[in-house]
């Protein structure tokens, strides 16, 4: 390299200084070629052609990108507002909708949001898993009062019925031998039934919804004289001594207390569409602003559910919505789906929970595994909100007017509903003093985009049933038109 570099250097030095011709001779030679008129004309022609080419190129680039934009906006119906000359090829509701998801940033982060024109609310991030926010003062004291009074006027019903008649018949119809049942219940296939395996049995044979602690099960074992050797395990021999509906009959005889149900509360539903009380319509509009979702999605969701817990009331930890399996239908789009499937679940993308009063004692909303999957890590039954609320990762104290809201599903990464968020597990801790009033606004969205679109198409063809009309009141299980309250 050193050699090459010095050779170059040498070559340059030689040509610059080499006295090959006298300087004046070289000058006259340049003058005759560069400064001649014809040379000037040629240079100018080239210069102009060059400028014209550049301008033409700029025009070309400008026009071709404009056309590309126009054709792109025709292809993507979500952005085709500027294309009046060509009607959208799909109906309006089928446009690609991208669901807004509010960012949590970090726990404790506060965002200022405008939910009522001219006012500002503070929205605090409570957890990222699930994505959970708290908004103090979401409802005024007057609004809380009106909602509670409307619910009372309409009448509240028991949220969960006691063990039902007919369950006995169900157990009798079971066409399986004790060995077959034992084998099915023996989840870990170790030839014995552990307490939790029997717990599943009890849920099967009684109405689903009785909450049993290990102590309750021991009591049932003792009552039925089932666990002869008293080791908390049922062998096949011990199991065979029990009749199919032994557990259920025992529960019926002994009587199940309300505190032993999955939930112990009363509730009702309040219609929020056109013609509803102004306060209810205002709340719906505010929820739409809060969630930044298309108003149609909020309009077509379940009515407002108002819940009252008496002293001693609770709701064990649960998910408001079900997991996503291809064969599962959402309750709200079930009628519009072309398939019939035995599996049906609530598809509640968002829960907005309003506290209508401040509770004197207990009644917190617990999120047992928020932000930290401690669920499997200890042997405490974190689902049990009567006993283990204090072990939950996060508890929200009920304060009049405050709203909390969270996403029950993750995003699919393409602007639509994805997998169920297992961290969204939550429940109502036992009310130790006074009563507790809450309201739930669930926003129903089918994780299957096409099914949601078909449902919206169906509803838009029946405009008189719009606004909570073709609604999915889980208590009724068939579409009804809410004309009351
Ligand atoms: O009462 C609470 O704090 C929670 C209520 C709840 O989870 C529900 O109604 O689904
Ligand atoms: Fe819930």
UniProtKB/TrEMBL annotation:
Q: Which UniProt keywords apply?
A: Calcium, Dioxygenase, Iron, Membrane, Metal-binding, Oxidoreductase, Transmembrane, Transmembrane helix, Vitamin C
Supply the Pfam families for this chain: 2OG-FeII_Oxy_3 (PF13640)
What InterPro entries does UniProt report for this protein, alphabetically? EF-hand-dom_pair (IPR011992), EF_Hand_1_Ca_BS (IPR018247), Oxoglu/Fe-dep_dioxygenase_dom (IPR005123), P4HA-like (IPR045054), Pro_4_hyd_alph (IPR006620), Pro_4_hyd_alph_FE2OG_OXY (IPR044862)
The cofactor required is: L-ascorbate
A GO term, aspect molecular function: L-ascorbic acid binding
Tell me where in this chain the Fe2OG dioxygenase domain is found: 300-445
Segments of skewed composition (Polar residues): 474-485
**Keyword Flavoprotein attached:** no
Which residue spans traverse the membrane?
Answer: 39-63
Any one of the GO CC terms: endoplasmic reticulum
Spans annotated as Disordered: 70-90, 459-485
What name appears for this protein in its UniProt entry?
Prolyl 4-hydroxylase, transmembrane (endoplasmic reticulum)
Question: Which species expresses this protein natively?
Answer: Echeneis naucrates
């Amino acid at each position: 390299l050193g050699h090459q570099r010095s050779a170059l250097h040498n070559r340059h030095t030689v040509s610059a200084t080499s006295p090959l011709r006298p300087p004046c001779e070289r000058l006259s030679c340049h003058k005759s070629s560069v400064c001649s008129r014809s040379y000037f004309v040629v240079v100018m022609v080239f210069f102009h052609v060059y400028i014209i080419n550049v301008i033409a190129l700029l025009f070309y680039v400008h026009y071709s990108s404009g056309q590309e934009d126009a054709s792109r906006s025709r292809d993507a119906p979500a952005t085709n507002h500027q294309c009046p000359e060509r009607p959208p090829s799909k109906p309006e509701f089928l446009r690609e909708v991208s669901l807004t998801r509010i960012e949590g940033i970090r726990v404790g982060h506060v965002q200022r949001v405008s939910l009522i024109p001219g006012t500002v609310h503070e929205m605090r991030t409570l957890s990222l898993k699930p994505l959970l926010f708290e908004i103090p003062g979401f409802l005024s004291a007057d609004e809380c009062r009106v909602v509670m009074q409307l619910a009372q006027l309409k009448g509240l019903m028991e949220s969960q019925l006691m063990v039902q008649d007919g369950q006995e018949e169900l157990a009798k119809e079971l066409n399986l031998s004790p060995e077959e049942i034992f084998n099915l219940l023996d989840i870990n296939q170790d030839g014995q039934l552990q307490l939790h395996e029997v717990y599943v049995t009890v849920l099967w044979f009684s109405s689903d919804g009785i909450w049993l602690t290990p102590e309750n099960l021991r009591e049932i074992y003792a009552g039925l004289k089932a666990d002869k050797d008293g080791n908390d395990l049922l062998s096949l021999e011990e199991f065979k001594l029990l009749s199919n509906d032994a557990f259920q009959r025992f529960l019926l005889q002994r009587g199940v207390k309300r505190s032993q149900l999955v939930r112990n509360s009363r509730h009702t539903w309040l219609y929020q569409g056109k013609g509803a009380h102004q306060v209810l319509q205002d709340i719906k509009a505010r929820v739409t602003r809060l969630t930044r979702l298309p108003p149609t999605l909020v309009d077509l969701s379940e009515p407002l559910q108002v819940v009252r817990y008496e002293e001693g009331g609770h709701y064990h930890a649960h998910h408001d919505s079900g997991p996503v399996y291809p064969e599962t239908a959402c309750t709200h789009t079930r009628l519009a789906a072309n398939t019939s499937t035995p599996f049906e679940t609530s598809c509640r993308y968002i829960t907005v929970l309003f506290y209508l009063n401040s509770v004197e004692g207990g009644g917190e909303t617990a999120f047992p595994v928020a932000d930290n999957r401690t669920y499997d890590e200890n042997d405490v039954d974190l689902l049990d909100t009567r006993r283990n609320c204090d072990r939950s990762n996060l508890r929200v104290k009920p304060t009049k007017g405050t709203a909390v809201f969270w996403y029950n599903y993750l995003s699919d990464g393409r602007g639509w509903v994805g997998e169920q968020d297992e961290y969204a597990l939550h429940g109502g801790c036992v009310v130790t003093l006074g009563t507790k009033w809450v309201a739930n606004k669930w926003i129903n969205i089918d994780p299957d985009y096409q099914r949601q679109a078909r449902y919206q198409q169906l509803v838009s063809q029946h405009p008189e049933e719009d606004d909570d009309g073709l609604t999915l009141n889980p208590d009724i299980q068939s579409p009804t038109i809410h004309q009351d309250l």
